[in-house]
Design goal:
globular, 15 helices, nine-stranded mixed β-sheet, alpha/beta, TIM Barrel, eight-stranded parallel β-sheet
């Protein structure tokens, strides 16, 4: 008998009924417009949460120890960010204020998977996962001292057969320790041979892991042939059998975005498991000391003006470019157009991912506002995406990309009984990005409640101090 029927019976009998504690949900989200991209449901429902899971979806009111009224609000699966580089847990609060409940470092990855997870235990407001990275492992093998991406031999020197064997061993070890996938920063390791990369793809395939790739020769800093890098990784995927996910097609493709999206679409019709993502900004960001700027020593002055030094927001000149390149640090690259970005965002195959970094020191507004920007600009204002389409790109599609390797992702990116209670509850009429290139550390607005494993990390539009319900998302560990 449902609680509602029990209460009606009690009224008819003229007795007072108090539900037993075991019948109460931990939390009820009442009267919200529940939008689930897996089932296609879009209706007013009451959501019952118990022990960090969605335990009930009902047309009728539910009883809980705690209740929030979501009338007039969207109740959506929490957003899943496949492209994040932050190290500081405080930066994840900005993600949570943007509706993100799970965040992954996959494009570059790390060399020591165990250490990465151990450093985050009990500290994270949202769920977290990592790839083992071809570039970081290559850096360790070749003694490259670069920060985050290679700056020395790992970028510019061909590996010996012995070094390739060590790289493959390091990647295999990381996958055995539960890495979510394999990261390939190929734009930052141009000296890595096609054979080395293919062999690493083969290691990924043995572990049923996807490669998450910043394709070779394609970046906001410039490229002679953007399609070449995409065709390379599609070939690696087809030969090895490892799925491939192409990072930030908006910035990698730029003027070739229509052609490159068509290549991905056609490869998929031929049976290649290839996917891609985009972020909703016209500027990219990377390390100024990286290989991508090796050819920038004598460019026209207007090219340097496209660069913006993150620490001070100043636009660069040739003189300041050379100064900061010696120093090292992050630089914004204003190289794309809104038309190209929109093409990438609204395409049916693209997921949304931020490519975000720590917010201290200030970085890029995408670190704080990518998802709210999509909802505000491309759903509410532009109409290029329906709400259901946008939520699919933000939640279900990223979850599905990881499921073969990480079965736990079957319970994320959905609103159904038994799924994890990772939820974003927001006001569609009010949600918007506030962060800018000059002031990137501004919280988005409109997210009223964000729950991770059933616990509030955002409540009444504000972050919950000290909330750390985030859990590791990890593949099985093979001893």
């Amino acid at each position: 008998m449902t609680l509602r029927r029990l209460f009606l019976l009690c009224i008819l009998l003229g007795v007072t009924c108090v539900p037993a504690a075991d019948d109460l949900f931990d939390l009820v989200i009442a009267n919200g417009r529940v939008v689930d991209p897996e089932s296609g449901q879009d209706a007013i429902r009451h959501v019952g949460i118990r022990a960090g899971k969605i335990a009930a979806l009902s047309e009728h009111p539910l009883s809980g120890r705690e209740r929030i009224d979501a009338a007039g609000l969207i109740v959506a699966p929490g957003f899943i960010n496949l492209h994040w580089h932050g190290l500081d847990p405080r930066s994840n609060i900005y993600e949570a204020m943007d509706g993100v409940t799970s965040s992954f470092e996959l494009e570059i990855g790390v060399a020591d998977v165990d250490k990465w997870y151990d450093e985050r235990t009990g500290r994270m407001p949202i769920n977290y996962g990592v790839a083992v990275g071809h570039a970081p492992v290559r850096m360790a093998v070749m003694g490259d001292s670069g920060s985050f991406v290679p700056a020395g031999d790992a970028a510019r020197r061909r590996a010996t057969d012995e070094e390739i064997a060590q790289i493959l061993h390091g990647v295999d070890r990381g996958l055995a320790r539960g890495a979510v996938g394999v990261g390939f920063g190929l734009a930052y390791t141009p000296a890595a041979s096609r054979w080395e990369v293919l062999e690493t793809f083969r290691v990924a395939a043995r572990h049923r892991a996807a490669g998450f790739v910043h394709i070779r020769g394609a970046s906001s800093a410039g490229s002679a042939d953007r399609e070449e890098g995409l065709l390379e990784v599609i070939a690696h995927s087809a030969v090895s059998g490892a799925p491939v996910h192409v990072a930030h097609i908006n910035s990698s493709a730029q003027e070739s975005v229509v052609r490159m999206l068509a290549i991905i679409e056609e490869a998929r019709t031929r049976g290649v498991d290839v996917s891609t993502e985009a972020y909703p900004y016209t500027a990219g960001m990377t390390r100024i000391e990286s290989f991508l700027f090796d050819t920038w020593t004598d460019r026209p002055e207007q090219d340097y003006r496209r660069l913006q030094w993150v620490a001070t927001s100043e636009r660069l000149t040739r003189e300041t470019f050379l100064k900061y390149r010696k120093q090292g640090g992050y630089v914004l690259i204003h190289a794309n157009t809104e038309s190209r970005v929109r093409t990438a965002i609204v395409h049916p195959l693209t997921m949304i991912a931020s490519d975000g970094f720590d917010v201290d020191p200030p970085s890029h507004p995408r670190s704080a506002a990518s998802y709210s920007r999509v909802l505000a600009r491309y759903v509410r204002e532009d109409g290029g995406l329906s709400l259901m389409q946008a939520l699919r790109k933000m939640s279900l599609m990223p979850a599905q990309r990881l499921e073969a390797r990480v079965p736990a992702m079957h319970d994320k990116g959905r609103i159904r009984v038994g799924a994890d209670a990772d939820l974003a509850v927001f006001d569609l009429a009010a949600v918007r990005d506030v962060a800018t290139y000059e002031r990137p550390t501004q919280f988005s607005v409109g997210m009223r409640y964000v729950l991770v494993n059933g616990a509030f990390v955002v409540r009444d539009g504000k972050p919950v101090d000290g909330a750390t319900p985030g859990r590791p998302v990890r593949a099985a560990i093979v001893e």
